[in-house]
Amino acid sequence: MTDLTDALDRILAWIQEHKPEYVSRFLPGLSLEELKTKLKPFPYHLPQELYTLYQWHNGISNDNWECGIFINHVFLDIDYALDQAMEGYINDPFQIDDRVEEDLPTYVFPFCGFEGEHFVVEGTDFESDSSPVYFMDQLGKIHLAFTSLTTMMLALAECYETGLYEISEEGLIEIVDEEAFGAVRLAYNPGTVPRIYDEGC
To answer: Model confidence over 147-173: pLDDT tens digits?
Structure first.
């Protein structure tokens, strides 16, 4: 998973340079054994990429919801993510029934979110290295946004490094050119939805 961790480190290096106070908000990564223990209640296999992500860092501390780094979404710690997957609306029976009817992934797991929106990976009956990443809107509808966690983070790293993110007057990390951001996303993730948001991402 070298490409994934390299991309994550590139994102973190940009944050260190431009918004250094955010770096201390990243929780330490977990060991593979810790992750397997914590995720034991989840009824499906999750991709190795997700384990790599949480071995890198275990999300952002829960009191820092303004710290959106994956697009504008907060990196969820594993306990909160698991709670949302098991107890929240993300996998409630109505959402699952809708996804089955639309031939979409049945059971999903969130790793970042903001105000009812999430990016999720698929839970499967078998072990796998990677999973497509889906955007889940506030109504629970999901759309294919990235072909994998690796291609997601490679695209985001390029967007950070090429000036498509900047610090706003309010001190938040924000996308400054949605159309250009969307073009980079699609270059790394062909075949995904043309836009995640109406703005052009």
So the answer is: 999 999 999 999 999 999 999 888 889
pTM above 0.90, yes or no: yes
The amino acid that residue 31 corresponds to is S
**Ranges of residues in the chain whose predicted pLDDT is under 50:** none
What whole-number distance in Å separates Cα of residue 116 and Cα of residue 147? 22
> Which tokens hold the place of 84?
């949302």
The C-alpha atoms of residue 47 and residue 39 are separated, in whole angstroms, by 12
The owner of tokens 């384990």 is 51
Strand stretches in 68-116, DSSP E: 68-70, 73-75, 108-114
Residue 51 and residue 35: Cα distance in Å, rounded? Answer: 7
In degrees, to the nearest 5, what angle opens at C-alpha 113 toward C-alphas 93 and 82? Answer: 55
User: Angle CA(180)–CA(182)–CA(184) in degrees, nearest 5?
Assistant: 75
SS3 label, residue 79? helix
